[in-house]
Predict the 3D structure of the following.
Amino acid sequence: MSEIVVDRMKKVPVREQDPQARAKNFEEVCYGYNEEEAVAEATRCLNCKHKPCVGMCPVSIDIPAFIQQVANKDFAEAARVIAKYSALPAVCGRVCPQEVQCESKCILGIKGEPVSIGKLERFVADWARENKVDLSHTEPKNGKKVAVIGSGPAGVTCAGDLAKMGYDVTIFEALHEPGGVLLYGIPEFRLPKEGVVKPELENLLKLGVKIETNVIAGRTITIDALMEEEGFEAVFIGSGAGLPKFMGIPGENLNGVFSANEFLTRNNLMKAFRDDYDTPIKPGTKVAVVGGGNVAMDAARTALRLGAQVYIVYRRSEAELPARVEEVHHAKEEGIIFELLTNPTEIVGDENGWVKGMKCVRMELGEPDESGRRRPQVVEGSEFILDVDTVIMSLGTSPNPLISDTTKGLDVNKYKCIVADEETGKTSREGIFAGGDAVTGAATVILAMGAGKQAAVAIDEYIKSK
Amino acid sequence: MFKIVEKKVLAPSIFLMKIDAPRVAKSAKPGQFVIIRMDEKGERVPLTICDYDKEAGTVTIVVQSMGCSTRRMAEFNEGDYFTDFVGPLGRESEFVHESIDGLKNKKILFVAGGVGTAPVYPQVKWLHENGIDTDVIIGAKNKEMMIMEEELKSVSKNLYPATDDGSYGFKGLVTEVIKDLVVNQGKKYDEVIAIGPMIMMKFVCKVTEELQIPTIVSLNPIMVDGTGMCGACRVTVNGETRFACVDGPEFDGHKVDFDEAMKRQTLYKAEECKKTEAYEKNCKIGGAN
Ligand SMILES: Cc1cc2nc3c(=O)[nH]c(=O)nc-3n(C[C@H](O)[C@H](O)[C@H](O)COP(=O)(O)OP(=O)(O)OC[C@H]3O[C@@H](n4cnc5c(N)ncnc54)[C@H](O)[C@@H]3O)c2cc1C
Ligand SMILES: Cc1cc2nc3c(=O)[nH]c(=O)nc-3n(C[C@H](O)[C@H](O)[C@H](O)COP(=O)(O)OP(=O)(O)OC[C@H]3O[C@@H](n4cnc5c(N)ncnc54)[C@H](O)[C@@H]3O)c2cc1C
Ligand code: SF4
Ligand code: SF4
Ligand code: FES
């Protein structure tokens, strides 16, 4: 094999599945680094003393420390370094918006490209899993019980950290499988479930965490009952932001209009893309996905893989697309058509109640609004009908009020987000902590993990001081 | 895993199962439902809670075999396990929150159709246990398809069976029984609670609107998660979009857009039929387990 020549200013390129081929399958798009590539990329890191990259990682992974181990080819030790800080490195290495997190402050990024921190993290995590490195170190059990609601990144991180400190932790999850958005939202081709998500969750079980699925806080049980009747000394709420928004335009309840959550859940959690599973899905032949975030890209690329021709319809311009640049790039490569500066005004149906088109107007950018982004305005007389038979609404989500409605004294704001202290996750109720999307509204995996981590520290302090 | 502790066939294609699910039994209230996933490959099937026993920790469901999933479910037997059983979902019936004295002065008429008879039972039973009398109409295709008559008789004041073909009780539709009771017999009702096929609830609401009797219906749209996460269960009530799984399943029947709801129920008809056909072909091979 030829030596990899490292250009200090450029990332070692990562191999990906060919766009034409991958547009027809659900296999992972990015192959990740092999050992040789990882070592080569690791040698680019300057091992900076003041570690600017670490300050931008919400779980404070000692980035140069693990990268030095990769450069030394001690991958097991690299995995041990990461495991001190993160329970989900194989996940974060794949889906973290590194460009705005750790990699945004990498010194090399000033003159050239930053170190590929995410891809290196992914490599280490994958290597550790394949080589069965045992990372389950825990303190002796202290016999104190903590309940965690929700098994997304926030809940899993909080549970893992508390278990390592010796707590007896039980996670209660509403769905039939744990993982939160990692399982039901983010598709297989970005985040393999059997290969990547499940093994990271199994590591949690090795730490002694118990997971009870099919339990809905606010319905099956209440938080108060957990504390009063089942002996939990503290509760962490990491229930996410699962409630989908719709636009409120005419025709939204026609057959063929779905929320991105429904479309993705049918495909990911219920495996509708496989004939041997019972749950049906209707991908349609021409699909409009309304929205421009990561969720919109995932829905669009899923519909594409199910055989549809797909449009992304977004009311601002490319520069404002909230999705990660990498995902937009991948979507374009695969053949998704971008209808930018375009806004739906009505979904048109046939006599039997099925979608037969979507009325849209073109937009132009005017003055900046409160968010600092230029406000889109309708171009007069630009109305047209986009020829589609399916519409997937991907306009964001908000926290589900099931828990706040059934827990007295738990304060929420006007968006139904649980009010919690930014540093500790403390809520208005003693002994109840919260973090992740349930507090911030839809955000990212790593921010949810950061919140779970901080709450674990605060819960430990709270219980010890009782 | 959730054990099936009892199974009974109530009518051709309608069966009852009692399932060991202590957490659900403990929290269940009239009007709520559960979701069952039979096994790894199963879909999430919503079913109304028909009875619950907090002491024994069991929940009873009554199912009518329709497509692939409910037929597959019919093959499960006593002693078998369902992989997933979650609930109670949805809001409890409104009357659970009303004062008992207020309810005692209220004349409630239940209208049950087909397999919808089963979900009526826990409501009538709850009211009976709280000392409140109710009248119940049960509608079925024919005598053979009439279910839970004895159980309902023991907890209601007056029971009016009706069959489409006249093989038992009143000959005709439940809507005709309502008219007969109110118009011909001069009975007064303050509220109607109707549970059954969508088409039946639509026509019951037409009649009760004319008779000016407030009416509650229990909607059964297509669902996935049942927790407010997917929006598959959207229904239009009073011109607004509501999620039946968290805002319902019970709504003011006079405000429900039934035509839209019925269209939405057919969304996956083509796909479901394909799966049902495939299921029939390799009958039992791909069945339980
Ligand atoms: C399609 C999609 C793509 C995304 N892509 C990215 C990406 O590329 N990068 C990135 O960083 N972020 C991405 N995100 C966002 C990211 O996934 C979320 O910000 C993150 O998962 C939030 O974590 P969480 O733990 O707060 O909540 P969640 O992951 O939402 O988990 C919450 C869990 O709680 C459970 N729950 C809810 N209510 C209850 C209850 N009452 N009782 C019991 N359990 C309950 C839910 O079922 C769920 O399992 C994406 C999101 C979506 C939907
Ligand atoms: C809140 C709620 C409570 C319910 N309670 C009960 C109950 O107590 N007992 C019971 O037997 N069923 C109940 N149902 C309906 C039950 O969930 C469906 O019959 C079942 O999902 C059908 O699955 P299948 O695969 O067997 O049939 P499918 O193959 O999905 O459907 C077969 C046929 O039934 C139609 N259909 C599909 N879903 C429904 C539906 N929700 N309502 C009416 N027709 C439908 C389809 O259009 C098709 O023609 C309830 C549904 C909801 C949402
Ligand atoms: S977890 Fe995310 S932010 Fe932290 S180092 Fe890894 S990729 Fe960067
Ligand atoms: S800033 Fe960049 S070069 Fe410096 S230690 Fe971090 S990753 Fe290495
Ligand atoms: S079933 Fe998913 S939101 Fe109601």
